[in-house]
Predict the 3D structure of the following.
Amino acid sequence: MTPDQESLSEFHWLLEVLQTIDVGMLVVDLEFNVVAWNGFMENHSGIAPQDALERNLFDVFPDIPRDWFEHKSRTVIQLQNRAFTTWEQRPYVFKFKNNRPVTGTAEFMYQNCTFIPVANIRGKVESLCIIVYDVTDVAVSKLELQKANQQLKYLSRTDRLTALFNRGYWEELLEAEFRRQQRANRPTSLILFDIDHFKPFNDTYGHTVGDDVIRKVAEVTRETVRNTDLAGRYGGEEFGIILPDTPPQEAVLLAERLRERIEEMIVDSHDQRLQVTISLGVAGYDSELNDHNQWIDKADQALYLSKETGRNRVTLA
Amino acid sequence: MTAATEKHLDEELRDVLQELSNVAMGRAADLLARLLENYVILPIPVVNLLERAELNMALSSLEEVKSVSAVCQGFVGSRIAGEALIIFNDTSFNDIAELTNFAGEITPQIELELLMDIANILIGACLKGLAEQLDVSFSQGQPVLLGQHLSLRDLVTDQAGNWQRALTIEIPYRLEGRNVDCDLLLLFTEDSLKVLEAKIEYMME
C-alpha cells in the first residue's frame, strides 16, 4: 500500500468505529447546521442522513429547547470549555424512544450529554460536538429508589387505620414544636381528645365497627383542622392536634367546633347508624413546662376533667 | 489543619502545587467572571494532604451553612486520578439567577441548571489549567449530582469508599458584592501523588 492508501484505510476503520459505537455523536457548525452524526443518532432518530446533514439542527429535531441549547453552546464556544448535562437536569436533549421498547419501563431514553468545542488546526473553535449517552437504566432505578424512599417515609409516619400521623412521628413533631417554643415564644396550643365510652361501645358492636368509628372521627378531624395544624392518632381512641401560632383561647374555639361536628356525625357501619361524642383537653404552651411530655400531661389532665364533668365537652388547662 | 498532617506533604511539593492551582484557578475565575459579568474575588487555594476523617475539617469553613448542593465529577489521565467536588451554598442561587438573567421563579429545576453551569466552568477550567501545566490530559467522567439541599454532615458521611488519604486543593470562590459561596475541592488519590511528584520534579529540572 502507498502511504496515501494506508492513511485512507486507517481513516476508514476509524470512521467505521465512530459509526458503530453505541454512543451518540453529532457535530454542528456555529450556525447549528448538522455537519456529521453517527449511526446511533441515525438509528434512534429514524431520520435519514440526507434529511439531516447540512440542515439546521432545530429543523431536524424540533423538540430541542432552542434557547437552552443555544445558551449552553454559546458558553462552550466562547469559553472553550466542555459542558456536561445530566438527565436529572433535563431527561433528554434528543427525544428518542427507549432502547428497550418491549421490556423497558421508561417511555423515552434518558440521556447525559457532553458538549465539546472542536477547534481547527489554528486553535479556533469552528464546530461543536455533542456526545449522547443512554442512561435510561440508571435513571429509572434512581427514580424508583427515590419513589420507594418517599413511600417508606410516608409509611413510617402514617397511622394505617386513619391516615393521620402515627404516634411516633406526631410526638417527634410535638417535641420539635416544643423546642421551637423555647427559642421563639409564640402562642402555640395542644389539643388531646378521645372518644367517649369507646370500650363498651367496642364490646357491644365489635372491633370492625369500632374501627369504622375511629376512621370517621379521624376524617372529621382532618376536615376541621387548618392546614398548619398537625393531627395524629395518639393511642387507640385517643388523638392529638398541635396548633402552631394559636393562643389557647382560639384552640378552644377549634376544639368546640370539632366537638360539635363529631356529635352531629353519623357513622354507617354494618347496618348500624351510630353516634359518638368526644371529650377534649386544651393546653397552651407555657415556659414552666420542662419538656413535651409535661405539655401532654397538662392537656391530658384537662381531658380528664372533661371526662369527670360529664364528657362531650372541652376543658382548657 | 493540624501540624501533624502537614508534615506528610513535602513543603516544596506543596508550594509548587499551590502555584499551579493559583494559575488554574485564575483561569477558571476569569471564565466565571466573563460568564456572569461580575468581578470574581481571587481566592487563595489551600493545598493539603488529608486523612479521610479530616475532610470534615477541610469543609469547616462551610460549617455555619445549613444547606448545600453539590456536584462531583471524576477525572483520570496519565495515571493521575481524582474527583472534583463543587459545593454550592443554597443561599447563592438568587444572586446567581440574577447574574445569569434568569427571570421568573427559581424552581429546583432552574437551580440545577445554574449549579451545572457553574460546575462545568469551574471544574472544567481548573482541570484544564492544571493538566496543561503538568503536560497531561484528563478524561472527565459525567458529573454526578450528590443531591440538592443536603446538610453538610450528610454529604461527608455519604462519601463511601475505602480511600484513606487524599491530596486536596480547596478553592473558595466568592463574587464581589454578591452573596455567592461556592467551594471547589479537587481530591487526588494517594497513588496519584507519586506521579504528581515525578511530573513536578521533571518540570523543575
Q: What stands out?
A: Residues 3-204 of chain B form a domain with the Chemotaxis protein chec fold (CATH 3.40.1550.10).
